[in-house]
Amino acid sequence: MSWNRELLWKAEAALVLAVIPERNRTRCHPRCAGVASCSVAAARAGWTVRIAEADDAGALVDLVHAYVVEANPRLIELTGRTIVAADEAEARRWVSASRAEGAITVLALDSRSALGTGTLRQLEAGVAEFKRIYVRPQFRGSGMGATLLDELLGLARCRGARVVRLDSAPFQLCAHALYRSYGFVERGPYRGAEVPEDLVNVWHFFELTLDLADR
């Protein structure tokens, strides 16, 4: 299949940027300062964002599974293959492994269900990575993705990160526009990225250098 990433991005970016809210970024997370609350939990239209706890494992598995179920048909269309099996057992394994390695996951939720998520893990000293940033389709355009990103950036600063990296599939154009609006720039593949070697040429890799004055 022939397609032009830059042309696709330009066509969609103007629409996406119009719904990205003005950001009120977190400089450091309350948990690092000893605040009892587990997160900033800023309300946005009936939902909040907070750090996931052990009791949230089931909700996180549902979100990670939904992420893969949505992504796999697009991956097959664009690359002819998938990376992760779309089954709950694989999602459960990923959630469990992330928690075991000390990653922090944030969760967007309303009074009834989990709506979005994102995970922060450490790649090396001073370098953090964001993984599995996902918002259920019906809540896209609400500012939830930006709120999750704000929370993750606050946690990364709190952990002493100087650089944040992430990878993103070629069809995730709305996410690319959001990352660019925060100052992320594209770069080559980085050590620790969980992208198969045969897909790195079509994948997107982003990096943000955190402003020392904003730490």
Word description of this protein:
The protein has 215 residues and is an alpha+beta fold. It has a single domain, classed as 3-Layer(aba) Sandwich (Aminopeptidase), CATH 3.40.630. 34% of the residues lie in helices and 21% in strands. The protein contains 5 helices and 7 strands, in the order αβααβββαβαββ. It has helices at residues 5-17, 57-79, 88-100, 144-158, 173-181, and strands spanning 48-51, 104-109, 114-124, 127-135, 163-168, 185-187, 204-209. It is globular, with a radius of gyration of 17 Å. 32% of the residues are buried.
What's the SSE blueprint?
Layout: H1 5-17, E1 48-51, H2 57-79, H3 88-100, E2 104-109, E3 114-124, E4 127-135, H4 144-158, E5 163-168, H5 173-181, E6 185-187, E7 204-209
Parallel strand pairs: 4-5
Antiparallel strand pairs: 1-2, 2-3, 3-4, 5-7, 6-7
